[in-house]
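REVIEWER CHECKLIST
Item 1: Sequence provided? yes
Item 2: Single chain? yes
Item 3: Sequence as submitted:
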Amino acid sequence: MTEACVPAGPPPFSRPVAVETVGDKGLRLDLAASAAECAALAEQDGLVALRDLRIEAEITRRGRDRLRVAGRVRAVVTQHCVVTMEPFDTEVEEPFEVEFAPEAEAAAAYARAMAEIEAAQDKAAALAAQPDPPDPIVNGRIDLGALAAEFLALGLDPYPRKPGVRFDPMIEDADEPPSPFAALAKLKKE
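Item 4: Structure as written out by the authors:
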């Protein structure tokens, strides 16, 4: 990740977990965001509102220094319909599974993955075939809140439509391909 991609300041939803608290049998967590955290995440993600954000996670050890986190993030989001511009609620549920490794190991895995992609003839195919490198364990901690915020954002519909609303393009003659200037010509005639 480049420096330009890193948001300034603390994340709006943070739940750090110390690696040493994860025993051999793992750790199960069910966490919720406060109303203030939901409001900050809604602003960050360009949502009208966000409520009932929960993360359920199971953390297991992968050797001495690595962790695997699997679970799901759930929330109710309010977005504007791209057709009617009316706000409406949607439930988002996004599963996740992420490996974590010490910072140096995670950085080395990322560098190897990027070098393999850069060296490939077909970069898109190389990227698709490349397994995700582990996320870094920073100062002996992982942040389940930041992980939840990331997967919540991935689960959002970029073009949300209110249930039952359809977008019907104005095509009058199906035999002719639509012209980008057809609507302007129609207005000029009227």
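Item 5: Key structural point noted by reviewer: The mean pLDDT is 87.
Item 6: Recommendation: ____
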